[in-house]
Structure formats: structure tokens, C-alpha cells
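@channel sequence for tomorrow's demo:
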Amino acid sequence: KCRAELPPAAAAGPLAVTDADFEQRVLRAPTPVLLDCWADWCGPCHMLAPTIDALARDYAGRVLVAKLDVDANPATAGRFDVRSIPTMLVFRDGQLVDRLVGVQPRGAIDARLRGLL
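C-alpha cells (generated this afternoon):
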């Protein structure tokens, strides 16, 4: 909306988040956060990846789109009871406000995100 130039990282795609930096990057984010919980061996996660990449570009500056590898970061996955992947967690003001499980169409994710803006 402000037409300010976005930093290069925002345009590059989703932000990789780990157990170590989850609190700082997600819970303290100044914008809503869409966190894609995924694993490299997960076929549906790879099917969803292009949509996540597009969301990161399209919502840059308004929603932080991040990815959490659940195999490498089990503490955060366990904290939010991620039992199936892909799971997308939506945070606002440091609180979990929504959860989408499984491969979702772009329109369904957009509808959830628009409700936060």
C-alpha cells in the first residue's frame, strides 16, 4: 500500500525458520505469519511448495510466509501439535489463529489470509 520498495529477502520467497529462531521470527513478527510445516520426503509438501512460493511473493510486506522443516525442528512442530504434513499455521500478534492441514488450493489459503489483513 505504501509503495515502498521491498527488501530483496521478502521478494525471494519463504523465510526458513528453525526451533532456535521461531520465537523471534514468527511470534514477534510485526505482520501476520503463514508458517508452512513440511518435510523433504513429503510428496504433498512438494506439491504445495509452488503455492507457498507464490504467496510469499504476493503477500510480501503484508504477511510473512515462512517454512519449518518438521524433521529438523521437532520442538516447534510438537509445540503446535503438528501431526500431519503439510500443515500451515497462521499467527497474528504472537498467537496461533488458524490451521490448514493438507494440500489446499490457493483460493482457500488466500481467503484465510485476507481475513487477517
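heads up for whoever presents: The mean pLDDT is 92.
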